[in-house]
Amino acid sequence: MVRIGNIELPRFPLLLAPMEDVSDPPFRAVCKDNGADLMYTEFISSEGLIRDAIKSKKKLDIFDYERPVGIQIFGGDEESLSLAAKIVEVTNPDLLDINFGCPVKKVALKGAGAGVLRDIDLMVRLTSAVVKSTSLPVTVKTRLGWDDHTKNIEEVAERLQDVGIKALAIHGRTRTQMYKGEADWTLIGRVKNNPRIHIPIFGNGDIDSPEKAVEYKDRYGVDGIMIGRAAIGYPWIFNEIKHFVKTGEHLPAPTIADRISVCRKHLQKSVEWKNPVVGINEMRRHYANYLKGLPNIKEFRNRLVTLRTEEEINEVLNEIAVTYAGFEFEKMPIELVNYHEKCPA
């Protein structure tokens, strides 16, 4: 069993990474159904919460069926983060996470997200301010460092643990790498195996198959794995990894009926949570991922992204289910999306 403060997670838990414009309540619902043990909201600006910004407040929405669930905030000012932590606590999440990992310019170059990696003393002060402002367990998500010359994650882990964080998730790239190249888990393993470290350490980056999850678990000894891009359009990855860890065998690939069913639920939740217009518009980014691997699917996809009612979309999904009935998917048609302007922190 893995503990984060008073939260109990199963042995070797699988976490859904906080992803901007992706890990909203509808997406989290289908990931929870398919085995995610701990999930996070999209990251929320501390300044936005203090200004009472509608978009920021909307991201605070959490539901009991999601638990345990954490709310993630970001910012570069101690007072703002402290106030934001107090606002978050009122919504009663299970934990509060600080984003020190987002690499996009609009965040990092304003001294927040991964930008804080250029000033470790500031990172410690910001974290300490949040810990002192809330009774919630505080966790941190970050990267190896700002660039190849400042991979200071070992120092960061010790200092953040000393000011009271209860777990640390580490993405195996620097800020300057963004999402390019291969994630380097070597330093993640060093942090986990540091005898001074007693909080859970979760690894993140490039986990896209049960085999890789088990390989990295055994090689680096992490307490659990955080999965982001590989879950987009493929929430089954959580249960597939769990089954493989337990048995060494693969679950059958989800059928076309499975894919359509999950896509329908995602759509329904999106419409319910956002309203029909916004929910349908924002769902359009997900169809290609759910239908990946189907031959000659372009015409159906083109129709799905132009329709304006849930009923019409469900009719097309019915057509797809009938057209591809019996189609056998390859084991896991996963392709990690390369986010340049998104931030799966």
Can you walk me through this structure?
With 345 residues, this protein is an alpha/beta fold. The protein is 41% helix and 13% strand. The strands form two sheets. An eight-stranded parallel barrel has the order 3-4-6-7-8-9-10-11, surrounded by five helices. A two-stranded antiparallel sheet has the order 1-2. It starts with a strand and ends in a 22-residue tail after the last helix.
SSE layout:
Elements lengths: L1 E3 L2 E3 L4 E3 L8 H9 L4 E3 L3 E2 H5 L3 H5 L10 E6 L3 H13 L4 E6 L4 H4 L11 H14 L4 E6 L9 H10 L4 E5 L14 H7 L8 E4 L5 H11 L3 E4 L9 H11 L8 H19 L1 H8 L3 H4 L7 H7 L5 H14 L22
Helix pairs in contact: 1-11, 4-6, 9-10, 11-12, 11-15
CATH class of the largest domain: Alpha Beta
**Derived structural class:** alpha/beta
Rg from alpha-carbon coordinates: 20 Å
SS summary, helix count: 15
Overall body shape: globular
Question: What's the total count of β strands?
Answer: 11
CATH topology tier name of the largest domain? TIM Barrel
* Order of SSEs: EEEHEEHHEHEHHEHEHEHEHHHHHH
Enumerate the spans where pLDDT stays under 50 for 5 or more consecutive residues.
Answer: 339-345
What fraction strand?
A: 5-15%
